[in-house]
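DM from R.C. (forwarded with permission)

"hey, sorry to bug you on a friday — could you get me a structure for this? deadline for the figure draft is monday and I only need the backbone to look sensible"
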Amino acid sequence: MPYRLTAIALEDLQRIHAYSTQQWGPERARAYIEDFYRVFDALAKAPDRDLSRRKRSHPYQMRPCGSHFIVYELLGAIVVIHAMPHQSRDVERHLTRLAPRFRKVIAAIRHEAE
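My reply, with the result:
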């Protein structure tokens, strides 16, 4: 099953990389970002392994990666990776704020599939 990173997810990766480079140096930052891509590949192979958060502001699934959560959703045969908030954030509040953007992305992907 393929995965697709949303613009929000790409922005998160850029922010995580910049912060990690500043705090711990380029080698450690690169290794941390590579960890994300390993988890993305694992999600593509077994996307239903994680608990669904259907009763939340936006129906999503989450998988931890280092100090972050990978927030994703299954859409047909695609894993849509929405965001990677830090575990110290109020994830529900963050996702509630992002939910309208998530819905637009999902609508666009559905439209492309038609």
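R.C.: lifesaver. Strands lie at 3-5, 52-53, 60-65, 68-75, 78-83.
me: no worries. The radius of gyration is 14 Å.
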